Amino acid sequence: MYNGLLHLHSLLRWVIIVLGFIAIYRSYSGMTGHKPFTSQDRKIGLFLMISAHITLLVGLYQWALGPAGLQNILNLGFGEVMKDPVYRFYAVEHTTGMIIAIVLITLGKGVARKDITDGAKHKKSFWFFLVAMVLILVSIPWPFRVGIGRPWFPGMH
Ligand code: HEM
User: Which of 37, 135, 153, 156 is a plausible cystine mate for 101, CB 3.0–4.6 Å?
Assistant: First the structure.
């Protein structure tokens, strides 16, 4: 079951990246082209938030019970985990970066419900989603990242 959830966690990154780029593109073109904020814009934000929240739940489970998070801190002590770049990445950096990004996605999605102009909605969502996507892209253990690299797709080696 742990492996299945890790695969889901890994695969959902692509859903988040695709929806994130669509959301950034739509809010940017809405902002610069003075377009109305449509139900389509709201839905993209909603699906982005849902996939981010599922990834968060699986991630919390992996962090709490998997080998790379809390278990390492309990076994080695926080100081030792912080000294090792691989342990530190999964126990602290990946987790913190992603949680901040998911909070930003949630705030970006919430913009749709605000009583502000459509232009302001596009502008605010653009910034929330842009910063969230940058954080996500730098916090993913891409295969080319030395030491921490993991596969592009679940099950690949
Ligand atoms: C947008 C959010 C996130 C994305 C895109 C993401 C992406 C990933 C990816 C691609 C992996 C490597 C999977 C593999 O080995 O095939 C991973 C591992 C991991 N993630 Fe995330 N993650 C996110 C959020 C989180 C959060 C919020 C937490 C913790 C609360 C978390 C905890 C972990 C842990 C502990 C691992 C290592 C699990 C293990 O090796 O047993 N992730 N994540």
Answer: 135
Would you say 131 and 104 are in contact if contact means Cβ atoms under 8 Å apart?
A: yes
**What one-character DSSP code corresponds to residue 156?**
-
Measured distance CA(147)–CA(126) in Å, rounded: 33
Q: What is the radius of gyration, based on Cα positions, of the chain?
A: 17
Q: Kindly indicate the confidence band of residue 155, based on its pLDDT and cuts at 50, 70 and 90.
A: confident
For the chain, the domains span 2-139
pLDDT of 107 above 90: yes
Residue of 49, 50, 62, 81 to mutate, ligand 1, most atoms within 8 A of C-beta:
62
2-43: per-residue pLDDT in tens?
A: 999 999 999 999 999 999 999 999 999 999 999 999 999 999
Nearest-CA residue for atom 25 of ligand 1: 59
